[in-house]
Design goal:
Layout (H helix, E strand, L loop, with lengths): L2 H13 L6 H13 L11 H11 L4 H6 L3 H10 L7 E5 L14 E5 L8 E4 L7 H13 L2 H5 L11 E5 L7 E7 L2 E9 L7 E6 L4 E2 L3 H5 L12 H12 L5 E8 L2 E8 L12 H10 L3 H4 L2
Antiparallel strand pairs: 1-4, 2-3, 2-4, 5-6, 5-9, 6-7, 7-8, 9-10
Helix pairs in contact: 1-2, 3-10
């Protein structure tokens, strides 16, 4: 099907999100996003299994794990409070946000959104536009990852806005792909602050893996400095992801200090065409759906 036709039909499907049953919604969305049929009866690839998990893994603990506020309590209890960025203030709505008592630098976030869609960074409060910030936060507030992508863990998250301690400039994001506690690789995210985001996969020996187009395009011998806290990241990732067919855990390292960032159950919401087909198949083989079936 022509790409432009698929984009038009996808908008139609998204407009009917309240009336289309979950399975049918995912089947149609997947075909229009990926230009191929979704196999939910016998899923094989990572993308297919992520769609299957949306329909079949409705463990209530997942809701707290995707809530950017409540997950801080979970990680603090398991690892200690020093591993999470401190919360400065919490509000029940965007309209309630008041930065008067916040420090000169801080970060505003919505607790229910994915990626950076609900993140506003303030480096200098004297130059900060609260109106612009509220416009971005309002846009994020309207986002419903359950309705739009059928990501079930977000269905019952109670929306909040919160202010968090500013950790620093040009943070490198380390995203660990974990399968029932087995840390397979780390996806390093760089260049986000400059608007030129690139993603590189490294295995446990910190060797570049040809899992996406960025890795393929990298020059011979390309690497990124391994974080000082790398071994600690791997150790903690094993503890926090055991029992899940797949769970990505993200960390920041700031001046040699490790901070938990977030859990992600559905990278790219299971429509990841940035990964190469061989990687999608490889990760799919590592995902044991019986872990969900047996629960």
């Amino acid at each position: 099907m022509d790409k432009n036709v698929r984009k038009y039909l996808l908008k139609v499907v998204h407009g009917l999100t309240d009336v289309i049953p979950d399975r049918k919604y995912l089947e149609w969305s997947y075909y229009l996003e990926m230009n191929k049929k979704l196999n939910l009866d016998n899923p094989q690839t990572m993308n297919e299994k992520l769609q299957w998990l949306k329909l079949n893994n409705h463990n209530p603990e997942l809701t707290d794990m995707v809530d950017k506020l409540r997950v801080k309590d979970i990680v603090s209890k398991r690892l200690g409070p020093d591993f999470v960025a401190p919360v400065l203030q919490v509000w029940d709505s965007v309209e309630d946000v008041d930065i008067t008592n916040l420090p000169d630098q801080f970060v505003l976030k919505t607790n229910h959104s994915g990626g950076n869609t609900g993140v506003v960074i303030c480096k200098d409060k004297s130059k900060f536009s609260i109106d612009d910030a509220k416009r971005k936060l309002s846009s994020s507030w309207k986002l419903d990852l359950y309705k739009r992508f059928r990501e079930w863990p977000y269905k019952n998250v109670k929306k909040k806005v919160f202010a968090e301690k500013y950790l620093g400039d040009n943070l490198t994001d380390y995203k660990f792909y974990c399968f029932n506690g087995d840390v397979d690789c780390c996806l390093v995210c760089i260049g986000r602050q400059e608007g030129n985001t690139k993603y590189y996969f490294f295995d446990k020996d910190w060797q570049l893996k040809m899992y996406n187009k960025f890795c393929l395009a990298a020059p011979e011998g390309f690497t990124i400095p391994k974080p000082v806290c790398y071994e600690q990241m791997v150790s903690l990732a094993k503890v926090l992801t055991e029992g899940f067919p797949f769970l990505r855990i993200d960390f920041f390292e700031v001046n040699g200090i490790l901070y938990f960032a977030e859990f992600t159950f559905f990278p790219a919401s299971g429509y990841g065409d940035h990964r190469l087909p061989v990687a999608d198949a490889y990760f799919g083989k590592k995902m044991d759906l019986n872990l969900v079936i047996k629960r």
